[in-house]
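Notebook entry, structure prediction.
Reason for the run: the old model in the group folder had no record of what sequence produced it. Starting over properly, with the input documented here first.
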Amino acid sequence: MLQTILAISGKPGLYKLVSRGKNNLIVEALDETKRRLPAFATDRITSLADIAMFTDTDDVPLYQVLVNLRELEGGKASSVNYKKATADELREYFGKVLPNFDRERVHNSDIKKLIQWYDILVANGITEFEKDMQPTEGDNIDNRADKMSEE
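New structure, fully documented this time:
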């Protein structure tokens, strides 16, 4: 499921892949508007299943970070207001979610975006991150975008 949840560079929020047009993907905003719009091969489109967070050792897939966040929050929306939290509050909070995150390479904006995405997913009833986000072979949004550009 979450292989079809997308982040589009330059556009706020998250989007769900709905369909494929001739030269684009049709996506639907995961917000109250549910607005549909085209995403073109020139847009930088990333599936949430393809994202990882930097740690002091190996990179951790985003689904695992979201699982940790869900366990910390008991399946509810984040207890931190990412818009108003200070840098120190964000880093302290994220340290509870992913204790060994790379403090040099993970920026405050990354933490804010993660919390925002988590809240969006929870508000849309998407909380089974373990089964929904693990990448499956052949289900890569980059492959779909490459196919789009070949047409």
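Summary: The two ends are 26 Å apart (CA to CA).
The old model has been moved to the deprecated folder.
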